[in-house]
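To: structure desk
From: M.T.
Subject: fold request, one chain
Message: Could you run this one when you get a chance? Sequence is below, nothing fancy, just the single chain.
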Amino acid sequence: MYILVAMALVVSVFFVFQKQRVPRLPNEVIKIAPEETLSQLTFPNNTLDTSDWETYRSEEFGFEVKYPEGWKVSGGVTSGEDDRGFVAIYDQRPFHGDDNGIYIFIKETPVNDYISKIKESSNYKKIITNNANGYVVRAAGGFIATTTVLGNFAGDNSYMFHVLDYRMSTVPGDYYEVLEQILLSFKLI
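Reply: Done. Structure tokens follow.
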């Protein structure tokens, strides 16, 4: 599993320099203090039909997320101090691979602790999707993956979900709406 993740990261870095990034956040720098009101995460032009999508549910970590029929779900254990595991959801058609998908890294770190460590070097926007609070983070350096951090600020659920989405299709924007809809479906259970 570690080899697959490492290979995916190497391929991602390679494509960073060859593909134009699909913009994910507004151009202005967004700095919002944690005590401010959350805004509902929405994507205005996303009209994707998800009626035939499947649901991945983890009772162990207390979340569920929907994904397109025919996509593959795999998971594993990671070795970091706060890491508890990961779930990869990706298009398994030939020549599409796991660079066109979402990786959910599960960490036992409060969301606010994670954000306080990166807020000096990143632009971020506080969001809510279904019943999960979090941040959308644009890391310095323009890496092709967009990071979304979701969790429960009240402490009822001690896990943080660090979501990376990759868009490495040969057609720019090909997976944009699909990945948005997967993110919108994320829910704490």
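Reply (cont.): The mean pLDDT is 66. Let me know if you need anything else for the meeting.
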